[in-house]
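2024-03-11 09:14:02 INFO worker-7 job=invfold-0412 stage=load source=structure_tokens
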């Protein structure tokens, strides 16, 4: 099991119903997986490849500038 996974970006917050359609249409990042570090993201990619379960896109929090 890989540690440092927070989950799918779209599942980590809420969008008001009035704006849900517009935000989900305009924001392709909602399906990205949020991980703590680049190393955690690399472990996830390795897992996906070894188990032939598809691809993933990741947001690594340690690379985001405040």
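2024-03-11 09:14:09 INFO worker-7 stage=emit residues=66
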């Amino acid at each position: 099991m890989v540690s440092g996974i927070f989950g799918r970006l779209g599942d980590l917050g809420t969008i008001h119903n009035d704006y849900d359609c517009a935000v989900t249409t305009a924001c392709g990042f909602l399906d990205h997986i949020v991980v703590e570090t680049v190393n955690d993201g690399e472990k996830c990619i390795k897992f996906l490849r070894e188990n032939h379960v598809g691809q993933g896109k990741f947001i690594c929090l340690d690379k985001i500038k405040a």
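2024-03-11 09:14:09 INFO worker-7 stage=report msg="The helical segments are 20-26, 38-50."
2024-03-11 09:14:10 INFO worker-7 job finished
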